[in-house]
Amino acid sequence: MVHTDDSLRWQRRLRSVSFAEISVDPRGLKYLCRRDVFSQVGRVLDSLPPGLVFLGDGSFHHLSYHLIRRCASEPLGLVVFDGHGDYLPAPEGYVSCGSWLAEALKLPGVHQTVLIGPEDRGDLPSNVLWVPPKSSEQVIAKISVPTRRVYVSIDKDVLAEASTYWGSGKLTLAALLRLLSWVCGRYELVGADVCGEIAPRGPWATDLELQEIRRNEDINLSICRVLSGPRGRFRSCA
């Protein structure tokens, strides 16, 4: 578990099953990050044990790059659930939560990427297999990632049920859990991460904010159960 903000501190049930927690300074990291700062944060993330890692707000999704980098010394497939393509250009010398996928595709071990969730393909390159949310369960079963090892990254803005700062998508939680179970049964899952949390905007949480946080926590716990269950690959989550 990576405390990039206060969002995960409100999820006490999730923290009770986490076996590792670290904090990173969000200054100069949220949304857009200089490459030298980004490299420094990567060295901090290297201390996390492999497994399922929660990253907080989706504005920190670019931290996924470092978790993927750790696994990319051998051939690796990526399965990304996201309401956006995250393949936008960033200013020179920077990495952003909207450009991290372009960076991950440059890693030498990454052989194929499956992106599930955006409503349209946008400017994604040809080596990214785009799967719209409504056809995901029909299409995913026909996909053959040409690697034994797979990493999964989830931004909860892909989900219809989640509350995030970046909107809600059209993939249902039930479909996401079935797809995760399918990946676990077919490939060696070497790592995973989840982002898309919210935190109270003021010093006190409103009743609505507490309801949204609990719903997001329920989603996170459901993902934990799938990835640590009989078909899962992780004993717990970080």
Tell me what you see in this structure:
α6 packs parallel to α7 (207-228). The mean pLDDT is 92. The protein is globular. The chain contains 7 helices and 10 strands. The protein is α/β, with parallel strands linked by helices and 238 residues long.
Number of strands: 10
Bulk shape? globular
> What helical percentage do the residues reach?
25-40%
Using the CA coordinates, give the radius of gyration: 16 Å
Following the backbone from N to C, one meets helices and strands in this order, namely EHEEHEHEEHEEHEHEH
End-to-end separation: 4 Å
Map the helices and strands.
Blueprint: E1 2-3, H1 12-16, E2 22-23, E3 32-34, H2 35-45, E4 52-54, H3 64-69, E5 76-81, E6 94-96, H4 100-104, E7 110-116, E8 128-131, H5 136-140, E9 149-155, H6 173-186, E10 188-195, H7 207-228
Parallel strand pairs: 1-2, 4-10, 5-7, 5-9, 7-8, 9-10
Antiparallel strand pairs: 3-6
Helix pairs in contact: 6-7
Can you give keywords for this protein?
238 residues, alpha/beta, six-stranded parallel sheet, two-stranded parallel ribbon, 7 helices, 29% helix, globular
What does this entry show, briefly?
It is built from 7 helices and 10 strands. The chain is α/β, with parallel strands linked by helices and 238 residues long.
